[in-house]
Design goal:
With 289 residues, the chain is α/β, with parallel strands linked by helices. The protein has two domains: 8-146, HUPs (Rossmann fold), CATH 3.40.50; 163-288, Rossmann fold, CATH 3.40.50.620. Helix content is 43%, strand content 23%. The protein has helices spanning 17-33, 56-81, 97-107, 123-128, 131-138, 172-188, 204-217, 220-223, 237-248, 270-278, and strands at 8-12, 36-42, 88-93, 112-116, 143-146, 163-168, 191-198, 226-232, 252-258, 260-262, 265-267, 283-288. The strands form two sheets. Strands 3-2-1-4-5-12-9-6-7-8 form a ten-stranded mixed beta sheet, sandwiched between helices. Strands 10-11 form a two-stranded antiparallel ribbon. A hairpin with a 2-residue loop joins β10 (260-262) and β11. The longest helix has 26 residues, at 56-81. It starts with 7 loop residues before the first strand and ends with a strand.
């Protein structure tokens, strides 16, 4: 099983309460793994299209001033919200958010992206997609999406991870995700629940065999801390995963996802998208091509 030990964590921010909340998870993972934290802000800093050539000198000066102000504000934001014991850098991305985040993750050799998501659904989401979901579609780097329900407080600062849920379905993608789940749970000394959602008509012998197979995937040095749980499916897989996470009071779901070609872009599976949108806790999506 491949180990997951992030050395560089990219935390995009728009300075909102949600982004600051997500930064708390990035800090906790950086502290636990000894990783460097890069806090990034993306803005293309483009001049308005109606400006003429005669006005461009003033526009360029104004944009340079805006860039300088953004750098100063980003540095101040990191000083205020990242604890001194975590090595942190700032990065101003002169790009649209999705393009900038994906490119920065590649250029900085990030092992993990941590970002907030509003978890909205409906027509506007279907047509446009959130920044976080578009990043999920376009990057090969694991992405931890952090959301919160409307009306809930969004505390800042490092967080505790005590209970991790990892759904599996006996594919290479799931094994890859489980390696990440084991690493995260081990790092925080958290309980790990490995969940297989099976068909309701399976016989007890088949269930026992599958549970034994689940156990074999967990490294021996960690198996004593890992609770293996089997769930008989009564509905859609995403619904069962979300319900189980809520029932267990999970602090994180680690989920494997496969990039699939779609015309000139890629998509991730329906189950992954639904879990990311509606999970009661942050979701670490581990992506395989």
């Amino acid at each position: 099983m491949q180990n997951f030990h992030p050395k560089t964590i990219l935390a995009p921010t728009d300075f909102s309460d949600l982004a600051t909340y997500a930064l708390g998870y990035a800090q906790s993972l950086a502290r636990c793994s000894g990783a460097k934290l890069i806090v990034a802000y993306a803005d293309p800093f483009l001049p308005p299209p109606h400006f003429t050539a005669l006005q461009m000198d003033a526009v360029v000066q104004s944009l340079e001033h805006s860039k300088g102000a953004a750098r100063e504000f980003l540095a101040k934001y990191v000083r205020e919200h990242v604890t001194a014991d975590i090595p942190a850098e700032t990065l101003l991305l002169e790009e649209l958010p999705v393009t900038g985040i994906v490119k920065a993750a590649q250029d900085q050799k990030a092992d993990l992206i941590v970002m907030g998501t509003h978890g909205r659904s409906g027509f506007s989401r279907a047509m446009l997609g959130s920044v976080s979901e578009r990043v999920l579609r376009e990057t090969r780097v694991p992405v931890l999406t952090v959301r919160h329900k409307k009306g809930e407080t969004t505390p800042s600062g490092p967080v505790q991870i005590k209970n991790v849920l990892c759904p599996v379905n006996y594919t290479e993608v799931s094994q890859y995700a489980l390696a990440h789940a084991v690493a995260v749970a081990g790092c925080f000394e958290a309980e790990l629940t490995v969940l297989h959602v099976s068909e309701a008509h399976m016989k007890n012998a088949a269930v026992e065999a599958e549970m034994a197979r689940l156990c074999s995937w967990v490294p021996a040095e960690y198996s004593s801390q890992c609770k293996i749980q089997h769930l008989v499916r009564e509905g859609a897989a995403a619904n069962e995963i979300i319900a189980q996470a809520r029932s267990l009071g999970c602090d994180m779901i680690v989920l494997g996802a496969q990039h699939q070609g779609f015309f000139d872009s890629t998509v991730i599976g329906t189950t992954s998208v639904r879990v990311v949108r509606h999970s009661p806790c942050p979701v670490l999506t581990v992506i395989r091509q």
